[in-house]
Design goal:
Number of helices: 11
Strand content: 25-35%
Largest sheet: 7 strands, mixed
Enzyme class: transferase
Structural class: alpha+beta
Helix content: 10-25%
Function: E2 component of the 2-oxoglutarate dehydrogenase (OGDH) complex which catalyzes the second step in the conversion of 2-oxoglutarate to succinyl-CoA and CO(2).
EC number: 2.3.1.61
Number of strands: 27
Shape: elongated
Family: Belongs to the 2-oxoacid dehydrogenase family.
Keywords: Acyltransferase, Lipoyl, Transferase, Tricarboxylic acid cycle
Distance between the termini: 78 Å
Mean pLDDT: 81
Low-confidence stretches: 84-99, 186-201, 244-259
């Protein structure tokens, strides 16, 4: 039986630590109380000693790795153990013996420098289940994106070293895969009864959150997953199902809660939602944010779209929307007002000579702002295709860290949800954000006469530390003029 060597308990003020120096190597014989490794924190260096005599069979984290309190970093076996066989395998109920396949580590992908750790969001494969090469095993959620970890080979899922909801680090081992193995014959029979429709234990965090947000009863949803497990698709199908069958079942199906009963649900924030909350608070507290408004007559663009929609779609294979016009107008305005296309870095103002525009996209996990790069070099069709690709990737949780990094200016279109007017919050470290809104027919005075025109409010929120009122108003007026006369975009006037 192997002995786990763990990082000592860290004080509350210390979030993580670093493996400083290993004093032993795999295969070395150690004595009781012998110093094995030095763990360095922000304040002190901690020594980790051997609790028993034995041999080092595996070192899980090398020097320089970041680790958490109580995290397993090595294994010590009794004298005579072979170093190549980690003892954690003995703890896993064998879906396949060692003779049937080799054990492969399932690791957290490499995280970017700006991301310190991640959370295990959803295990898609349970121990003992068969897996195929390139099959998604687990979703790893960071502050920005969801990363998929796929199987490197065919085989059987081994143990889950870390469960859903646990915090993990880059390249940390989170599970085992028995490559080349075949599931035991008893596995399907034993796993099926365990997954009952009315047990929250078989619900993944994302499904559980979805059910809680919609106020649904999990026992009424039929699961189509392995062993009757409820999937997101099952919940969506349940929501879309006609209400007629429920009505025939008599009154209990209509009110979920008995009359007069007061209930509440507590659902933990996702990492993305917590990150959004922190960034919005940071923007409110650390910038001198101000919002200026204007309105634009959208009739010229609507007429242009109506005239060329069919031929545009036939030629480019994509519909002509409004966002491409917004992006084109924003890029031209940024060229004329470089202060808006800049950002504050300490006591410096950094002016950017490129035009990367963040597009706010609503996803099932929350609002994200992927970046459309070098917009000044893109045609209208390329902008439409780029925005569509980002929206699809956001919907499917496929946005990468690169998609989310950078951006000099943000456009958010609350009009698609019916918003008439809003004050958008700056997407730091950017200095400004443009809010587009619902296009609504309103009576307007035109040459002394009242006309009904499709009008839209514009809202520009900006950091007054960097941008003065003159530049902000001029920027917004420029966008208004370009949208009301799209020919200006072609003639650069």
């Amino acid at each position: 039986m192997a002995i786990e060597i763990k990082v000592p308990v860290l004080p509350e003020s210390v979030a993580d630590a670093t493996v400083a120096t290993w004093h032993v190597s795999v295969g070395d014989t150690v004595e009781r109380d012998q110093n094995l490794v030095d763990i360095e924190t922000d304040k002190v260096v901690l020594e980790v000693v051997a609790p028993e005599a034995g041999v080092i069979t595996e070192i899980l984290h090398e020097e320089g790795a970041t680790v958490l309190g109580q995290q397993v970093i090595a294994l010590v076996g009794v004298a005579g153990d072979k170093p190549a066989a980690p003892a954690t395998n003995n703890e896993q109920p064998a879906a396949a013996s060692a003779s049937e396949g080799k054990e492969v580590d399932i690791k957290v992908p490499v995280l970017p420098e700006s991301v310190a750790d991640a959370t295990i969001a959803t295990w898609h494969v349970q121990p003992g289940e068969a897996v195929k090469r390139d099959q998604n095993l687990v979703d790893i959620e960071t502050d920005k994106v969801v990363l998929e970890v796929v199987a490197t080979e065919d085989g059987v899922m081994g143990e889950h070293i870390h469960a859903e909801g646990e915090t993990v680090l880059a390249e940390q081992i989170i599970g085992k895969l028995i490559a080349g193995a075949v599931p035991a014959a008893a596995t399907p029979a034993t796993s099926a009864p365990a997954a009952s429709d009315d047990s929250n234990d078989v619900l993944t965090p994302s499904v559980r959150r979805m059910i809680a947000e919609k106020g649904l009863d999990a026992s009424k949803i039929k699961g189509s997953g392995k062993g009757g497990r409820i999937t997101k698709e099952d919940v969506e199908a349940f929501l879309k199902a006609p209400a007629a069958p429920a009505a025939k079942a008599a009154a209990p199906a209509a009110p979920v809660v008995a009359l007069g009963e007061r209930t509440q649900k507590r659902v933990p924030m996702t990492r993305l939602r917590k990150t959004i909350a922190n960034r919005l608070l940071e923007a409110k507290n650390s910038t001198a944010m101000l919002t200026t408004f204007n309105e634009v007559n959208m009739k010229p663009i609507m007429d242009l779209r109506k005239q060329y929609q069919d031929v545009f779609e036939k030629r480019h294979g994509i519909r002509l929307g409004f966002m491409s016009f917004y992006v084109k107008a924003v890029v031209e305005a940024l060229k004329r007002f470089p202060e808006v296309n800049a950002s504050i870095d300490g006591d410096d103002i950094v002016y950017h000579n490129y035009f990367d525009v963040s597009i706010a996209v609503s996803t099932p996990r929350g609002l994200v702002t992927p970046v459309l790069r070098d917009c000044d070099k893109l045609s209208v069709a390329e902008i439409e295709k780029g925005i569509k690709d980002l929206a699809i990737k956001g919907r499917d949780g496929k946005l990468t860290v690169e998609d989310m990094t950078g951006g000099n200016f943000t456009i958010t279109n609350g009009g698609v949800f019916g918003s008439l007017l809003s004050t958008p919050i700056i997407n730091m470290p950017q200095a400004s954000i443009l809010g587009m809104h619902k296009i609504q027919d309103r009576p307007m005075a035109v040459n002394g006469k009242v006309e009904i025109l499709p009008m839209m409010y514009l809202a520009l929120s900006y950091d007054h530390r960097q941008i003065d009122g003159k530049e902000s108003v001029g920027f917004l007026v420029t966008i208004k003029e370009l949208l009301e006369d799209p020919t200006r975009l072609l003639l650069d006037v």
